[in-house]
Write a structure and sequence with these properties.
single chain; 243 residues; mainly alpha
Length: 243
């Protein structure tokens, strides 16, 4: 029973660790989704638009910006991965074609780290005895490159789903109002729910940036309020000038 419990706990820890790998993308996708969507809502409210128009503008922003952000995240990490593979192929080719030069580079690298004499000879011999190990050392020590271990697709997917899920919060009240009729003030409730979302995302951000939780929460809320306020003012001014 104890072994089964330990095995279950180990699997749970592995799943948690896997989720943590993409926590940064979830946080920043959520921040962008909530801030930009609520800014659209605030601007539309400032312009005096009704719920149906707010829903149209909000969902158009939600889908277009979310897709754009996720594609950008995917391409950025795919480019990093492709760049690593390109340089790795170059290193393999150099090991095959100019092994003496590459072997001397290994010697120079470890000599600079303080290895000398027979120990240095042994280190060079062990590293260059295996081509794959040799290339891995050259990638890390000569080029300062580590192999990307996260999926570009998952990065894009997590960013997109986070953007949609959190960005939907400001719109949910207006969707409720349009379908069933909302009993309270839609903008006040949308603002309240979005502020809560800002706080939760800010708390998660503190784990990514390893900063104070309250500082991160306050920073995220303040930035969201500033963005919404600017949008509201711009919407109100445009409605006044263009009517």
């Amino acid at each position: 029973m104890q072994n089964q419990s330990e095995s279950t706990l180990h699997r749970q820890n592995l799943r948690f660790a896997g989720a943590q790998e993409y926590l940064g993308e979830f946080v920043y996708g959520g921040i962008d989704g909530s801030v930009t969507t609520f800014a659209v809502v605030a601007g539309a409210v400032g312009a005096g638009l009704d719920s149906s128009v707010i829903i149209i503008l909000g969902f158009a922003n939600l889908l277009a910006d979310g897709f754009s952000m996720s594609v950008g995240a995917y391409l950025a990490h795919k480019t990093e991965q492709d760049n690593y593979e390109k340089h790795k192929k170059i290193e393999y080719r150099e090991v095959e074609e100019i092994p003496d030069t590459e072997r001397q580079e290994i010697r120079d690298i470890f000599a600079a780290k303080g290895f000398e004499g027979e120990l240095l000879d042994k280190v060079v011999e062990v590293i260059t005895a295996d081509k794959h190990r040799w290339v891995d050392v050259m990638m890390k020590e000569e080029l300062g490159m580590s192999e990307p271990d996260r999926s570009p697709f998952m990065i894009g997917w997590v960013t997109f789903t986070s953007f949609l899920a959190v960005g939907l919060i400001p719109l949910s009240v207006y969707l409720w109002d349009y379908l069933l009729g909302f009993p309270g003030d839609t903008f006040i409730w949308a603002s309240l729910l979005t502020t809560i979302a800002f706080g939760i995302i800010g708390a998660l951000k503190s784990y990514v940036t390893e900063t104070s939780r309250w500082k991160s929460v306050l920073e995220t809320i303040v930035l969201g309020v500033i963005a919404a306020s600017l949008s509201y003012v711009v919407g109100a001014l445009l409605e006044h000038w263009l009517r």
